[in-house]
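Q: Got a minute? One more chain.
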Amino acid sequence: MHSGCADGFPTAERWMMRVLLVSDVHLDSPFAWAKPEVARKRRQALRDALTRSIQLAMDQQVDVICCGGDLFEHDRVSPDTGQFLRALFERAHPIPVFIAPGNHDWLGPESLYGRVGWSPNVYLFEQRRLAPVTIVEGLTLWGGAHFAPAGASNFLEGFTVDRGGVHLALFHGSEQGSYYADEPGKAPHAPFRAIEIEACGIHFALLGHYHAPRNAERFIYPGNPEPLTFGESGQRGVVIASVDDGGRVTIDRHSVAVSDVGDFGIEVSGCTNKQEIRDRVAGALENRRGYARVTLTGELDPDIDIQAVEFEDVAPSLDSPPIIRFESVTIAYNLALIGQEPTVRGQFVRDVQASDLSTEERRRIIILGLRALDGRHDLQVL
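A: Always. Here it is, folded:
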């Protein structure tokens, strides 16, 4: 590992530096939503996307490569992944590679970072507070690391630059302003506010943590370069930031993903049999590549019996069978008619309707009970 000044940059009065930022790759991610053989393909896709990122840096002849954390999954990372990263970064030599570990690839006694013999162009930030590296005279890169999967403090709190010139920051953290609410379920790590960036003397921050891409005046999140789950949106990938000697930054985004991961909602109300439902799904997924999740919505007759397994061959152009969700499908029971029946299910409907439960609770219980009496397990109750 290098420390101190980066090699290979001549001192100049005027300069323009180009920095490629990649973050949140999550190598060796479990992909819990996928079957084992599909998850294995998805993990390979993560490697392929990172390889594309580094190749782009070489093709574009950038001056610096920065990794904004969560390069891999600390608890799952394999020795093979370590050797993959070592060889990949070595290929980029002499371009320096700066890494600021995040909450998923945090530094610790058993960290992969300490078990790999990195090439001389790799620099790992190993401090809890922002530490400086001089990239070229007049340009300083400040970076810090996470040392646990949670609990990292604000890297900018109490920090002020101690020298002149242009200053960039590289760390894994959660901006807590307007962007914070845009990614529900994303726990805050090393939380900070955008106003602190300028206040501490940093011209621009290169960040990781949020998977959704975000552009702001003083910071940027590139987003995860390869899809990790369904429902992701925005131009994710890598960022090439051009920084001049006056601290002005221009941004270019580049897609490096190797897979399409799509979300589809399909209305099935009015379908009278499961073949019609299959046809609607097949039409929506025709000629689609990659991976797809389909959410069926609407109301179906109780006589229609559908199972997810019946859709596995509906889109042969996909890399794996689509994931079918039935959460938004309801069964069109005629409760008024059933309630008049001199049967067990008729009595069940009458008893529930006479209860003190809310209208919604009665509906859920009645549908759940009627499905059980019908021996149905294919549709879920909203």
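A: The domain at 16-254 is CATH 3.60.21.10 (Purple Acid Phosphatase; chain A, domain 2).
Q: Perfect, thanks.
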